[in-house]
Amino acid sequence: MMKVIIMGCGRVGAQLATLLDKEGHQVTVLDTKSYSFRWLPADFKGTALLGHGLDEVTLKKAGIENTDVFVAVTQGDNRNIMACQIAKHIFDVPKVVCRIYDPLRRDLYITLGIEAISPTTIFAQVLKEKVEG
């Protein structure tokens, strides 16, 4: 079982939280708006925590000091990368995954040792395969 903190409870964050929760992982979802937690299913066993993933007090409340994985999937690239840097370099979280919409910035963050995923690049590749296939 992994302990996972997900920053951002939009469709992607909630879907990831749901998948991990169903597999028995300990999941905490952070969001600045309580309205965002509506994306979580009624049977979600994890924790929905109102707060900002850039705030050390909130992160400690979420249990970051003994977390295995930190994932940032808010709408803001800057927010995501800052939170991931804090998780990795201040709290020594072993695995940090960051959604970055800007493909150019993604490459830079990978050189900083953060697993960065660009849905822009992934979706463009899928569309290209559909167009050509």
In short:
Helices cover 41% and strands 20% of the residues.
Count of the domains: 1
Shape descriptor: globular
Q: Segments where pLDDT lies below 50 for 5+ residues?
A: none
Proportion of beta-strand residues: 15-25%
Instruction: Return the CATH class.
Output: Alpha Beta
Which architecture name does CATH use?
Answer: 3-Layer(aba) Sandwich
Report the total helices: 5
Question: How many beta-strand elements?
Answer: 6
Determine Rg (CA atoms, Å). 15 Å
Structural category is alpha/beta
Helical proportion? 40-55%
Look up the CATH topology: Rossmann fold
What is the ordering of alpha helices and beta strands? EHEEHEHEHEH
- The overall average pLDDT, rounded, is 94
CATH superfamily: NAD(P)-binding Rossmann-like Domain
